[in-house]
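README: folding subset

This subset contains proteins for which both the sequence and a predicted C-alpha cell string are available. Records are stored as plain text. Below is the entry for Anti-sigma regulatory factor (130 residues), shown exactly as it appears on disk.
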Amino acid sequence: MSSTGKSAEVRLSIPADGAYIAVPRSVVGNLAARNDFTVDAIDDLRIAVDEACSLLLPHATDGVLECVFEIEPPQLTVRTSAVVPAGWTPDTTSFGWTVLTALVETAGVQTIDGKLTITVTATATAAEIL
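--- output ---
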C-alpha cells in the first residue's frame, strides 16, 4: 500500500542487459514487503519477475525493458514489456515459463504493436495461504 493507503503505480525502464535484472527484482521485493506479503511470497515474486525479465531480455530489439508495478491492495501486478521481433512469443512450455507460472496467481502474455508484455499478479492474502 502506498503511504496514503491508496493504489499506486511505479514505472521502471532499464537497459535490456542482464546486469540490470536486479533492479526490478529489488523493486518488486520492496513493494511486496510494504504490502504485507510474506517472506516466502516476496521471494516468489522476485523470482517470477526475474523470469519474466529473462524471457524478454534476449529479444528486446530496442535495448529497453520496461516494468510497471501496480499496487491495488492487497494485489500486486507486474507488467514487464519489451519491443520484440514480429511473431515472437515466449515458449510457454519452457522451464522458465513453468517456474514463472508456479510462483504467482496469474501470468499472461499480450502483444500490442510489436511490444510484448508479460503480466504476473499475486495477492498478499492468497500468498499467505500458499
